[in-house]
Write a structure and sequence with these properties.
alpha/beta; 7-stranded mixed sheet; globular
Length: 310
């Protein structure tokens, strides 16, 4: 996940019939959290939704977490410390949110028999492979952010062996927060040429499409058709940051040759980035769900969405 948005509290009732389930979205003010609320609001299947943003719920406060989770059948956790570079000098603070806070959520769900779907990251891997990482690949975080997120993953899997779901995502972009695609759209109108790294590979993923997949998974979990554990919530296919930028230009009718390839050492950052962030998607079949769409078709759909382009 990337980016932060304004804090908000949202409570919605189903459009028809009696309320049958209460769902909680944590991190509801962020890019993915806001899309989760949108997706849930588009459904009419007897779900009452509460969205709590950072100002409404401090997930590092165990008593507050207990109170927030109480009465909810499903918890979708999009709350996170997302400052990857900042985590290098504040790993304890990042782990308090991404690890300890997630532990509190998992324990609260375990105590109440609730399903927890927790969003994690490709950064739990070393990023030095050549093939897609399967869901059960050994973890070896390449930076402090990845280490903090791995603590949260382990808590969910340990405390909720039957009702805990970890969805790893990567290269996320969307309408409601700063992200690479939005930056490319802005810079396209400001610069004649852009130099973009071409030595990191990944799967650009639209946050709205990820929200749809997470909600499908939660419903499958409630129906008993989705084994607990780890799923990889990224688009199919793969590209580089340069390839993504060129595709953004092409979809918008701009000359993709304005984007020039370069290498990561041109843009040093406090936190190392994985060179290979390509994830495998085999476990979706076990849940009776298809893997997510190819990144190109996903990007085209995103750039046609008024919510993203306005």
């Amino acid at each position: 996940m990337s980016g932060t948005s304004a804090d908000t509290t949202v409570t919605g009732e189903p459009t028809g019939g009696a309320t049958t389930q209460r769902w909680l979205v944590t991190g509801a003010g962020g890019m993915l959290g806001r899309d989760l609320l949108t997706v849930l609001g588009e459904r009419s299947d007897g779900v009452s939704v509460t969205g709590l943003a950072r100002a409404d719920l401090d997930i590092t406060d165990p008593a507050a977490v207990e109170a927030a989770v109480d009465g909810h059948r499903v918890v979708l956790n999009a709350a996170a410390w997302t400052d990857v570079d900042g985590a290098e000098s504040a790993e304890a603070q990042a782990t308090a949110v991404n690890g300890t806070g997630v532990t509190y959520l998992a324990q609260a769900c375990a105590d109440r028999g609730a399903v927890l779907v927790h969003v994690s990251t490709d950064y739990v891997f070393a990023g030095d492979g050549e093939l897609p990482y399967p869901e059960d690949a050994p973890t070896a975080p390449c930076n402090a952010y990845g280490r903090s997120k791995l603590v949260g993953e382990q808590a969910v899997l340990h405390l909720l062996p039957r009702h805990g779901y970890v969805v790893r995502t990567a290269w996320l972009y969307g309408a409601h927060g700063p992200n690479f695609v939005a930056t490319m759209l802005r810079l396209a109108g400001e610069r004649e040429h852009l130099d973009v790294v071409d030595d990191q590979r990944g799967q650009p993923t639209w946050s709205y499409a990820l929200a749809q997949q997470i909600v499908r998974l939660a419903h499958a979990a409630l129906a008993g058709g989705a084994p607990a554990g780890i799923y990889h919530g990224t688009a199919s296919g793969q590209t580089t940051w340069c390839g993504l930028a060129r595709e953004v230009f092409a979809v918008r009718g701009l000359d993709p040759r304005r984007v020039r390839p370069t290498t990561s050492d041109r843009f040093p950052r406090p936190a190392p980035r994985p060179a290979h962030s390509v994830l495998g998607h085999e476990r979706w079949a076990l849940a009776g769900l298809p893997a997510m769409a190819d990144w190109r078709s996903m990007l085209s759909a995103a750039l046609r969405d008024p919510a993203f382009t306005d």
